[in-house]
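Open question from group meeting: does this chain pack into something compact, or does most of it stay loose? Before anyone orders reagents, we agreed to write out a predicted structure and look at it together. Recording both the input and the output here so the notebook holds the full record.
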Amino acid sequence: MNPILDTEFVPAYSKKESHETMKSIINISVRDLLDFCLRRGDLDLTTFGAISTTEGIKAHQQIQNQRPEEYQSEVFISHEIETLEYILQITGRMDGLRIADDQIIIDEIKTTKQDLTQIELFENPLHWAQVKCYAYMYAQKYNLGKIDVQLTYFNIDEGKIKEIKHEFTIDELRAYFEPLISTYIKWMDKIHEWTTIRNDSINNLAFPFRDFRHGQEKIMSEVGYAIADQIQLLVEAPTGIGKTLAISLPALQTLGRNELFKIFYLTARTTGRNAAEAALNILREKGLRIKSLSLIAKDKICPNPDRLCNGRDCKFAAGYYNRANNALQSAFENDNFSHNAITDLAIEYQVCPFEFSLELSLWCDFIICDYNYVFDPKVYLRRFFDDDVNDYCFLIDEAHNLIERARAMYSAELNKKQFLELRQLLKNKLPKLYRSLGKINTTYLKIKKQYGSGAATLAENDPPSALQSELEKFSNHAEEWLALNQPADFREVLLDLYFDVRGFLKTAERFDSNYATCYNINDQNLSIKIFCVNPAYHLRSMLEHARSSIFFSGTLKPTEYFLEALGCDGSARHISLPSPFASENLGILVTNRVSTFFRNRHHTKEILARTIVNLIKHRTGNYLVYFPSYEYLQMTFDCFKKQDPNTSTIIQTSNMTEQERLQFIAQFSHESKNSLVGFAVMGGAFSESIDLIGDRLTGAVIVGVGLPPVSTERELIREYFDSLNGNGYAYAYQYPGIIKVLQAAGRVIRSENDRGIVLLIDTRILTPPYDDILPREWDIKQFIRPDELNVLLDEFWGI
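Structure tokens returned:
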């Protein structure tokens, strides 16, 4: 964080217009104005803040309550500057205003741990800048010739106060204020000019293709109405309709009317980001001007991953704020801020690419990012979502993934081993923290003893209160030492654990009937997890920041399940569209005589492998076979290789790197003369969001109904929803399972020219509730014996 000023500000075009001039109004706070104009120094994400926000607020209130009766606290002030094109409205909230005995004093309170005797020797110019701006705005409003200002410093450790007063004339304040405003207005002129260019391009933008695909026009119409009506919409549409473009275009059109401030395109995978970027580039070819930004995770974009994020260790952090505005001015000549574009700018201007991408997000119109930048309480973009601004639109790609991702976001876990490892590092170094970690370990041991010896996973409906108490003490002790900002070989480990503990405690504060505590016990360790069983409430609270949220996916059935689990409100609508491609291009074959139940897998693996061999023998091509687990995959693969040792195969393994995943997909090529069979896991990287168009994929075999393994967490979900609506088993197992099946099946037909087979193998697939969720346009053909399969394959391939 910037040691001088926080950079998280959101200057915004208001939808309101001045009745007299019909000019747009741009709002900026005094703090954000100074941040933009005066920021200097290094980027430092390793220096620990000495005073928490909560402590600062309490200290402010304590001082304000001690002031005399005529002292007014938290006084709002505003000042308008009208330019030829717009009105700049500058706002602020003064800590205090005292009017007494013909004297007016503007008071600004600052909490510190610094020696108060040294304050005047090392004055912070930004503190004076803030109070001088307030003083100018107040004096200008009430036609004052002079005014007093006061900085009140409060040492939070000693409880002592030091007040520093100055008197300024209006001319002195004007001479300070106007150059600041001039700098900012030059930037706002650029922003206003850009907004006009953007809006004109959007208003003149036509649909980029000669014809609509079947269903595409329907999606565009429904999305447009949803945004206009400020409601949520679920769009279920298979791949091939062109839903990314159809959903993005009406959102852009609303932006072009200044009825939205920003569009957030939220996705769970790199492939989703690529699809959004591709859609915008298609529109750019037709004249669209839009500033889009793809936010890339810090660990993937950092040029110095082995260095600490501060000016001492990283050249991209050293002097970051000295160069940020120049980099911003240069960057604004571009429209498309992709991963490569951000990296190139960062290298050219020697700025941290991740921090600079966050900076750019303030000025971009269309932000493509992971779900967590909106929904995760640990990393969400506070610069946008800590305020009451809600002129955003959320476009939520592959929305079926958000439910499980949200459960993880709103859960937290700590294990005994983490504390023991840090305790070893602190031995004979930090006695207070060493003792605190010992007490935490003792608490873990007591919990472990309470539940008995041996491995087990247990759950409680109450929070882990005994542990919370010790964690709070550890957190306080850690803060005391971290605030000293002393170098140490254990500092990074301590800092990481401190943040993990704070996250755990924050999650514990949210503990209610939607949560449970899980204890995972084994001989060597004990992990304690505060598990969010139902994240709908938390999702709903973040969705309130959007004027409209559009959820879209190829699988959003049952509708009632998704409306409830995603936290949608009562006005949300749902549309479902069939595949735009000819149904005869997709052969759906089902055998419901092969049991994939766990207890039967060893007995059916041979016939399963034989069925796969039989399928690929009918037509040379590329095939993907999906399994519910790696273990089941491996046992079937072994049987397959014995039966057909000559066919080329490739296996998905757990924890594959992104490069390994790309290499896996690359083997499915058009040029292959021989068959290739890929063995993969349902719900993994190769069952969603991959495009194997044309001959790159001939067919898919889907083994089982995708049920998640039975676990303590799944059972908690089942019990919770059984109690809530009687659908516990469906919510915990069946619906998540069939969604994996449908996603895997969706890999086969990706364009109007594709033709392929989907083979479903399970005894349950044609029974409720699964059969009700399968696409209605599927022409399902069943078989029992191998010869029946041969006949169906001959018919489909025209043999």
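Observations to bring back to the group:
The chain is about 45% helix and 20% strand.
The first helix runs from residue 30 to 38.
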